[in-house]
Structures are given as C-alpha cells and as structure tokens.
Amino acid sequence: MARASRRTPPTSASARIPRAAPAPHPSGARPPAIPAEVLPRHVAIVMDGNGRWANARRLPRTAGHEAGEVALNDVVAGAVQLGLSHVSAYAFSTENWKRSPEEVRFLMGFNRETIRRRRDLWDSWGVRIRWAGRQPRLWGSVVKELQVAERQTAGNDGLTLTLCVNYGGRLEITDAVRAVAAEVAAGRLDPSRITEKTIAKHLYDPDMPDVDLFLRSSGEQRTSNFLPWQSAYAEMVFVPELWPDVDRRVLWRAVEEYARRDRRYGGAVDAVASGPAEQG
Prior knowledge:
Strand content: 5-15%
Structural class: alpha/beta
Number of strands: 6
Order of helices and strands: HEHHEHEHEHHEEH
Largest sheet: 6 strands, parallel
Helix content: 25-40%
Strand order of the largest sheet: 3-4-2-1-5-6
Distance between the termini: 68 Å
Low-confidence stretches: 4-17
C-alpha cells in the first residue's frame, strides 16, 4: 500500500534551533532580483548525471552520488536565498530498484545518511522537509529518518523541500485511483461526482502545489515519470550540467528563464491592431 500523507507537529528541538541564512556561494554570486510575482511557486528537480560524472573521472558510481549530495545542498541554499516556497527532488524512483543490488544497497544507505547529515542544517534555514513516495520495499531505517526529519521541521514556514524517495508518478496516480475506487465501493462516493480535485486529494501529498518549473540536469530531455500529475502545465528547463556540477547558480539561471516565459495555460490572446497597418 502507499504511504498516507500526514501532518506532524514540530518538536521542541526544532523550536530551539535558531534560524540562519545559508552561507554565500564561494564565487560571491548573489541571487538574481526576480519579482515575487514571476517566481515559480514549485520547482521539481530531476537530479540526473551522477553516474556519468563518476564514469568520466574513472571513479565508482557511488562517488557521483556523493558529489550529488553536495550539489543538492547548494541548490537548497540557493532556493532559500531566492525565496522559493517549494522544491521537490527526485531522490530514488520506483524504477531504480532495477539497478544492481550493490547500487541499490548503497542508495538506500546513502539516502538515509544524507537526510541524517543535512536535516539540522536545513532546519536551521527554516526548511520544512516532506516525503513523497511508497513505503513498501523502502528500508525501514530510511523511512525512520524521513519521519524524524518531517517531525523536526514541521513547524518551519520557509522553503518546503519534498524528498521523493521510492516515488513513481504512474504508481502515485494508480494508488490515488485505487483509493477513490475503494470509496466508491464502500458507498462513500458517487462516481458521477469524481473530479480532478477528487484524484488530487488522494495523491501522496495533497497539499503539494502544481509544478511551475521542471528542471532536469545532464542534458536529457524527458520527465522520467516524475510528478506527471502535478507537472501538467510545468515549464520545462533542461540544463547540460551533470548533477554533481550543478549549484545554486544553475537553479537561478533556470528560474530566470522561467520568469521570461509567457504562461497561458491553454488560453490565447489575439493581437489587436491599435491603428492602421504599416505600409512597406
């Protein structure tokens, strides 16, 4: 069965940690001045290219994942500096179980330790950590660390960072439809009253806003089953950098690109001539 969404109260430890600003980028780069009204509310990130980064340096694939943790931390810092409200990161997909048993074991332990290493720092920045994904097959120790991070940061009102661990978009929709069907079978829901909002209410995190900006590293141009429901009207930005080479400046560049785009959500506006057409 899928993990149910839940709200968790903040712990006293969260309240004791003073709020701090992320350290500046080593280059001295500062976040671009983008008006709040054109900032994306929700940025979804596919962190792709760890293995290719390691292979190019004749390093084990695990070294790429380790470098990718540093990249994620810097991107989170940049999101906080920019004032973004939601970032979702694709940490482990349901398709990743197809990888070698050795790499899967590493990734399970690595996700667990990354959360443990980073949660206090992210908490100090006012980041609220959430988890979206399926509980079956996921290591109990990973689930525990995710739950601890959720409880510790539940009272934060800055950036919401959703770690998508053991997540698959089609499975999320399938699980939602299964839950809706169970309500219909139990007589609690009239099938004729099912709407998009009904499905959305049964997704892993019903409070997650739609994705505005979908960002993928490594030059690949596909969504890889990441947040398909939420990304129906997302603006896609694909960057050439492999994930370990990404930092907050790449995020800022992508947000600047997003801010320049005209989002019409299926609508169209005719250009109305304000005077006689020019000759020549």
